Each structure stands twice: as structure tokens, then as C-alpha cells.
Amino acid sequence: AAAFTPDSRRLVTASRDHTAIVWNVTAGGVMSAEEGDSEGVLVSLRPAGGRVLTRARGTGELRFVDTVTGMAAGSLKLPACENAEARFDPSGSVLLVRPWDQNRLFLFDAADGRPRIELGGEGALVTKTALSLDGAWVAALHADLTLRVWATRTGRLQAEFKTRDENICTI
């Protein structure tokens, strides 16, 4: 995986060798490298810039790296799980965490790591997630092919749909 920072001056890559690297595109060279565990690394850039999420697998912890300095910028302990998918909402203010082995989702304040809302808890395991472009909604596809949509501010379940396609790759 690879993604540019919003100012296009840095490129963040995640490799099969379990390393996340922040590259300085304009000056050349590596700014920082974060080694993952045997499960690898996960990379999600904060759209507003400044931080990148570098690891969420096998440790029960998310680590952040400042994309300007390449230095560590804090961490966040995951609730009751060791492995998770995590990503910032389009504004960069909310962090969505999907534990791999649960039917719940968690929203955190991206600035200070405070828990905001827990979503779900009903139905089958969550397999895929999506955030709306305005950050108002989060959708989750469950293993039983139920698609649920929640309001990110209130945690209120807005809609529930039963899909028919077992082969949905993304939402």
C-alpha cells in the first residue's frame, strides 16, 4: 500500500517485509521506518495531514508517526482486541477501528485518542467498513450479508439492509 500526504511532499508505504516507511519526496530519502510484527503493518493517513497510523496488528495498539518530522506521535490502545483495521475519516478528526474478530466498531477522537462511540454489537462479524465523504455516516457489512449504517455523531443506527451478494469486495 502507498499514499501521499495531503501536501504531496511525503509518501508513506507499507511493504510485505512488515515495514511502514515515510519517504521525503521533495528532498529524497527516508524520514522514518516503522517495523511491524509478523502480521505486518497497516497504513492510514490523516487527511488533514500531520500524522500517519502505522501499526494495528498483533499488538493491540495503534501507533502514530508525524509525517513532517518522521518522529513518533503517540499511540492508542485498542479496546479488547489485538488485531484491527483502522482508518481516519475524510476530515481527519475521527478514527474508525474495526476489530477483526468482533461485530462492533469503535470511533475515537483522532486528536487526543479519546473514545467517542461504540457502534454495533448486534449481528454477525463485521467484515468491511466505509465512511461517508462528509464523515457523517459509517457503514458496516457483516458476515451474514447485513449492511448497517450509523450516524457517527450520535451512534444511532440509521439503516439496515440485507444484501444478496456473497461476493461483495468493498463498500
Keywords:
four-stranded antiparallel beta sheet, 171 residues, mainly beta, elongated
Summarize this, please?
The protein has 171 residues and is mainly beta. It contains no helices and 16 strands.
Structure description:
- By secondary structure, this protein is mostly beta strands.
- Helices cover 0% and strands 50% of the residues.
- It has a four-stranded antiparallel beta sheet with strand order 1-2-3-4, with no helix packed on it. Strands 5-6-7-8 form a four-stranded antiparallel beta sheet, with no helix packed on it.
- The two termini are 18 Å apart.
- The mean pLDDT is 79.
The span between the termini is 18 Å
Mean pLDDT level: 79
- Rg estimate, integer Å: 16 Å
Describe the global form. elongated
The count of strands amounts to: 16
Supply the helix-strand structural class.
mainly beta
Topology overview:
Layout: E1 2-4, E2 10-14, E3 19-24, E4 30-35, E5 44-45, E6 51-55, E7 61-66, E8 72-77, E9 84-88, E10 94-99, E11 104-109, E12 115-120, E13 126-131, E14 137-142, E15 146-151, E16 157-162
Antiparallel strand pairs: 1-2, 2-3, 3-4, 5-6, 6-7, 7-8, 9-10, 10-11, 11-12, 13-14, 14-15, 15-16
